[in-house]
Each structure stands twice: as C-alpha cells, then as structure tokens.
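Protocol step 4 of 6: structure prediction from sequence.
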Amino acid sequence: MHQPTTPVTGKEIGCHWSVWVGQNAALCTVSSEMERGRLAVCWVKVGVCGNEATIEARKVSRTKVTVSITSSCEHVEALAEALPELDIGVEMTRPLQETMVYHLAGEHLCRNSCLIPAAIFKAVEVAAGLFLPGRSRIEFVQGAV
C-alpha cells in the first residue's frame, strides 16, 4: 500500500474537510450543504494518463441533480459540457448501459476503463442522500502484473 501524496482541501468551495488522498484515488467528501443532502464533491486521479477531475453533484430538487466537472482531460471536459440535469430515479434504476451518464461517456471519453463515469454516479448517490461518501480506490498489486 502506498502513502498518501496529495493534499486536498475544500476551502475554495466551502467544504468542511481536509484529507490526504493517494495516487490513483477517488474521494467523495462532505460539505456543509451535503450535511443537508444537497452537495457532493469528488476528486479523481485516473491513473497513468495523469489526468485529474473534480466532480460536483448538486441536488437541485427532490428528483434532480446537476453535475459539474473540472478536469485536465479534454475528453472529460467534453462529457461535462454534454451532461444535462439528471433525473435521480431514472439514472439510478436503469441498466448501466442505458444511463445518460454512460451513453454520453461512450460518445466523449477516449477509453472504456475511465473511472469518471463511476465517480459521477458515486457523487450523484451521495448528493441524493442514497449512500454515504467514502474513499474509493483501484490499485494494481506489484509483481502481479
């Protein structure tokens, strides 16, 4: 297991957190708005490509969530621009291949293994109050590859 390398603070966006995350990590966290079930922010470092993204999911009504993404990847930025306001019930109950998030990811992202669509869903779940935020991680076992 590697040591955390990147400090992440949420002062710029009004979050009440300060954590360390490691390489190739995704982190969802809690803000003061999230405490009321409205906002979730994830930071994602995808891997070998070195790109990063910050995903903000905001519950704007009882059934709707908006997603905004800032990324160092032009493909993720294109996905962000194409994402409409999402219907929580529809997106969270459809088969994965029928969701708006994965449909648009297929149009805009350069590889199927990109973690961004999964991170979008995690942020939506947290903003909607369906699940608690938590650290997600994918690591390859050294010597097994």
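Step 5 (inspection) to follow. Residues 116-127 form the longest helix (12 residues).
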